């Protein structure tokens, strides 16, 4: 009966339109739209990767073998299983022009079957096979435009790779399988594998991978084929990928970034929740007479509660529908623009998953932030309502509502953790939001009390006195202003400080500690000659060198490594491995003992201590490493401290020489030199040893910096959505406060105040609140930035003052704009009419 009566009353209330609920609706719409948009883009990219998985991979399946070609038995199995097989060899090298200019390039050596799927596009247009045929008696190659322009080349020029000359036939403008390339330090060059004969680039021990793309018969069971390959060659150490996930690295990155942005979006929902709560309180305050009349006519508290719960629920559903339409519709509408900026395909369409996720978040947020205002209205007595005193109720609702709020909040956090797949990040985000809200609420209370105590000091400055009275007096909007604006600014402040400090560490600290070059693929007999050249140069301050092999950590104590440490970067892909008879310089053993230099017994390995702790390794554990197709089982005899932050030489695993010294391998060297000497060092080494590849660390740092810039930009856009929600809340607070400020202005005008004094007072009030919110947000942002820099990035932290000052000034400006938008009403108030017609 109560529900029927409440539904009838709610329907009658809704006939009056949306007056008083515009900000409520706007907050719901914006929060739903932001999360739905992020989810839709994420899901669209995921579906595009699934639909185009075979094209992105270059075939229905791929077998990747590290630093060797497939054996006769392996190739025979591929030929028997697939309709067509294409062999692709991938490695880094140096390209040299006729003028002596040099550049690092990622070489893709292909056969005549490449590409199995998709099409390579060139400028000028021509078939890839014609481009690779070459001209003037030289084999051909094609290069990415970035590399062509960097070296000042034009199609038709002659370049050298290793000790062999090639004809540059065209620019490489499109590569169908480029999404699987991952992080590359050099632009792409494509040539034929057969053209590498005599170049010296694929000598024994050279760092390369051979990828075999398989065109399988239609209807082939990919999972069964994968298992058949693993069964046929259990110890070959190959990696299998297929069209079910053609670009796993890209897919995982998109999922993680999307999940992170959704969590950032939850802070926007929290700000929207503040706006929802404030808007509902303001609306209920205008319904004083209505609620009082209903209570007088016999309506109990439950009926009042249900009436306005149904009303807010109906409006929330309306906002939910509009928000989903915007959040899903805008990405689909802007699909051509978004796809043009994406390196991978995307299939834009309405997907139920992101819509359900956004809807669930929003429903829970609305319930969390509407329960308390509704519960307070339910408990208010009719007599106090007639006196227009919603403030006469207790500050906290009864325990059932507190329990319901706690359960809903737990459900929201659980849902966020489930959808994001990262419990730790979700808990940190939720804790950060909750902590920020508590701090901001305490700050708002402190600002009100400070305003009361500072008011006597404003004598002789009436505008300032009126502003302080409005901030510290009854009906103040300090709470919603500081909460909504402060939370949005806190996210922006934290992002700004983290980005600034990380960039500072990369641009300022890393180059001073990092080497100038990595030289790789140094043959054993070349290493003494390379050291001789470098040690004789006074500009070179240091040289480190070590033998270099690559291997896959396949098993830990007999169990597949991916099962022991799922998702850990050490067991994903191949890792660098070296050997040493004696403890290397600047190496510190933290547990165990180094082996006897003359040890010829069982293979032993020293593991990086921090990574070992993350994986759960202990002394005496046995690791199975697949090196060049051969399994080697070694016992962990020590843990070492390894510092990767300097970008210098650091190996996760070091083995005793007897274990792997006989395997074909090359050397790697790091060179520390003055910047002005780097070019000459590169010329001398490359001219004498064309097979050696030089990786300039400054170029790698620049590429990492660009990647971080993209991540920071995406996060900033998410934080900006939070700030926009906060601006809407400010507008709602200003609108709800307009009636009180109009009456206040009428009284002040009666006492002789001028419009200019009133305008200055309004501007001071909003600017003070905004600046206070900015200061609190800055403190929260600095704390968050320091925590991430110290505990996650492990870098030094210093305050980025331009970003910090921008947060404070931005808070004051945003609050000022929102307040002045509603200043006209109080300024044009006519005292006689306002005071006579007081409702």
């Amino acid at each position: 009966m109560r529900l029927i009566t409440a539904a009838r009353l709610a329907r009658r209330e809704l006939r009056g339109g949306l007056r008083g609920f515009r900000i409520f609706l706007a907050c719901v719409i914006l929060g739903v739209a932001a999360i739905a948009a992020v989810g839709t883009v994420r899901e669209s990219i995921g579906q595009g990767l699934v639909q185009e998985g075979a094209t992105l991979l270059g075939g229905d399946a791929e077998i990747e073998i590290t630093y060797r070609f497939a054996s006769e038995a392996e190739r025979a199995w591929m030929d028997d299983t697939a309709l067509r097989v294409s062999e692709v060899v991938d490695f880094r090298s140096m390209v040299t022009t006729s003028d002596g200019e040099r550049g690092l390039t990622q070489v893709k050596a292909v056969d005549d079957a490449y590409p199995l799927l998709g099409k390579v596009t060139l400028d000028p247009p021509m078939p890839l096979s014609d481009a690779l045929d070459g001209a003037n008696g030289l084999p051909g190659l094609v290069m990415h435009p970035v590399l062509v322009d960097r070296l000042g080349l034009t199609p038709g020029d002659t370049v050298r790779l290793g000790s062999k000359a090639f004809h540059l036939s065209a620019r490489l403008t499109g590569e169908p399988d480029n999404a699987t390339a991952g992080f590359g330090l050099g632009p792409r060059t494509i040539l034929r594998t057969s053209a590498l004969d005599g170049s010296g680039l694929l000598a024994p021990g050279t760092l390369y991978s051979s990828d075999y793309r398989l065109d399988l018969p239609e209807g082939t069971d990919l999972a069964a084929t994968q298992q058949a390959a693993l069964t046929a060659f259990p110890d070959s150490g190959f990696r299998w990928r297929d069209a079910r996930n053609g670009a796993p690295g890209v897919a995982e990155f998109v999922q993680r970034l999307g999940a992170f942005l959704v969590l950032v979006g939850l802070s926007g929902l929290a700000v929207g929740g503040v706006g929802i709560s404030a808007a509902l309180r303001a609306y209920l305050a205008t319904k004083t007479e209505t609620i009082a009349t209903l209570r007088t006519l016999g309506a109990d508290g439950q009926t009042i509660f249900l009436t306005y719960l149904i009303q807010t629920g109906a409006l929330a559903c309306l906002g939910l529908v509009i928000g989903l339409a915007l959040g899903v519709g805008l990405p689909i509408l802007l699909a051509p623009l978004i796809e043009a900026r994406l390196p991978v395909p995307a299939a834009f369409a309405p997907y139920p998953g992101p819509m359900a996720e956004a809807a669930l978040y929003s429903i829970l947020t609305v319930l969390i932030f509407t329960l308390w205002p509704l519960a307070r209205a339910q408990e208010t007595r009719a007599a106090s309502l007639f006196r227009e005193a919603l403030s006469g109720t207790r500050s906290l609702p009864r325990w059932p509502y507190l329990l319901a709020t706690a359960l809903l909040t737990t459900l929201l956090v659980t849902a966020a953790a489930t959808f994001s797949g990262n419990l730790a990040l979700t808990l940190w985000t939720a804790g950060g939001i909750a902590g920020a809200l508590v701090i901001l609420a305490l700050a708002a209370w402190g600002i009100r009390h400070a305003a009361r105590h500072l008011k006597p000091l404003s004598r002789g400055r009436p505008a300032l006195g009126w502003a302080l009275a409005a901030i510290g007096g009854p009906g103040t909007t300090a709470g919603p202003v500081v909460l909504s604006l402060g939370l949005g600014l806190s996210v922006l402040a934290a992002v700004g400080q983290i980005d600034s400090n990380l960039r500072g560490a990369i641009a300022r600290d890393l180059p001073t500690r990092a080497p100038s070059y990595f030289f790789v693929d140094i043959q054993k007999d070349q290493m003494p000659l390379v050291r001789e050249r470098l040690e004789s140069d006074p500009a070179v301050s240091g040289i480190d060198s070590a033998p270099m092999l690559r291997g896959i950590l396949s098993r830990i104590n007999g169990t597949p490594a991916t099962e022991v440490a799922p998702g850990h970067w050490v067991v994903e892909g191949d890792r660098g491995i070296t050997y040493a008879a004696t403890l290397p310089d600047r190496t510190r053993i933290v547990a165990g003992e180094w082996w006897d230099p003359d040890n010829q017994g069982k293979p032993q390995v020293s593991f990086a201590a921090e990574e070992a702790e993350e994986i759960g390794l202990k002394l005496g554990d046995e690791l199975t490493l697949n090196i060049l197709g051969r399994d080697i089982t070694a016992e962990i005899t020590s843990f070492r401290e390894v510092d990767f932050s300097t970008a210098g030489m650091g190996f996760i695993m070091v083995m005793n020489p007897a274990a792997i010294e006989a395997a074909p391998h090359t050397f790697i060297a790091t060179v520390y030199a003055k910047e002005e000497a780097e070019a000459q060092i590169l010329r001398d080494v490359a001219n004498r040893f064309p097979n050696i590849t030089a990786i300039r660390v400054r170029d790698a740092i620049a590429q990492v910096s660009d990647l971080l810039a993209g991540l920071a930009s995406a996060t900033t856009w998410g934080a900006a959505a939070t700030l926009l929600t906060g601006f809407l809340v400010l507008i709602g607070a200003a609108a709800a406060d307009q009636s009180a400020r109009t009456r206040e202005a009428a009284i002040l005008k009666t006492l002789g105040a001028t419009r200019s004094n009133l305008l200055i007072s309004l501007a001071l009030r909003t600017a003070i609140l905004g600046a206070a919110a900015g200061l609190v947000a800055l403190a929260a942002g600095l704390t968050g930035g320091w925590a991430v820099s110290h505990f996650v990035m492990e870098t030094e932290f210093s305050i980025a003052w331009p970003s910090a000052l921008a947060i404070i000034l931005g808070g004051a400006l945003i609050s000022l704009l929102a307040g002045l938008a509603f200043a006209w009403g109080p300024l044009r108030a006519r005292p006689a009419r306002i005071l006579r017609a007081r409702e």
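The first strand starts at residue 61 and ends at 66. The CA atoms of residues 10 and 308 lie 6 Å apart.
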